[in-house]
What does this fold into?
Amino acid sequence: PSIPDRAVLSLCPLWAVARLQPGEATYAPMCYADGGLVDDTFVYRLPDSWLLVVNAANLSKDLSWMQYHAPRRGVEIADRSEETAMLALQGPQAAAIMDLIAEGDVSSLARNRIATVSVLGVELLVSRTGYTGEDGFELYLPADRAVELWRGILAAGAPLGLLPIGLGARDSLRFEPCFPLYGHELGPELTPLQAGLGWAVALRKGNFIGRESLLKERVEGVPRRLVGFEMVEKGVPRQGMRVHAAGVEIGWVTSGLFAPTLDKFLGMAYLPPDLAAVGTEIAIDIRGQLRAARVVKRPFYTPAYQNS
It folds into this structure.
């Protein structure tokens, strides 16, 4: 298991993701009026409330944004972050380990579903979600039981090869399947359409904050597009490095690292749409030297659960 830096908000039933049924969950960008991203979130429909999981670094602004826009009646927003812990159990043996430690058939829980379960004697919410390229579960539980449960899961899963991971490994797990990360691929100056998250924006299904700006961008075209690239020449691309083509600066790197599964140095970057096609030759400015690279198809790695 790993502890993602996600914070937790519990909301009462009036929420914009009205199509969700109890026990269902969805990924949901939260936008400013100009279409820029306040945050990317995960929304869970519980029997009598909603659970919203946000990036922990954005907790204060997310909470203020929702409180400002919430209707004066019918909605109660409660920040449960301090009292809630979340553990992520991800990987090819995640379902087998859950069957060892949970009461009931948790491994049959469908993708993007959530249920109340007892795990090693701790009653908690378990969801078939995760921000990695593997199948797995996220467990929401009282913060004062987190260390106890962490140790219990590690001990139970050890015969199946379970290990704790650090931030570097976790970053590669979201990077290889090209999952965007707030502060890298996502931010207030970037829109879901530019980040390739148009599938998560229902422009035809009612009003929401930022809809008009995103409709305009959909009609007129995005000014930049998120792409994947691989290094042709030796070099490690890092966030903030500038991207060039034909001697002209055209964009910037959002994330880059050595992808262990693919044995390549890869990166993501924002480029003009006319230079975003697969196969486009580009160069990355690495400490003052332009290193050759080329645009490649995203994702670099197809999440395991999409192959099942």
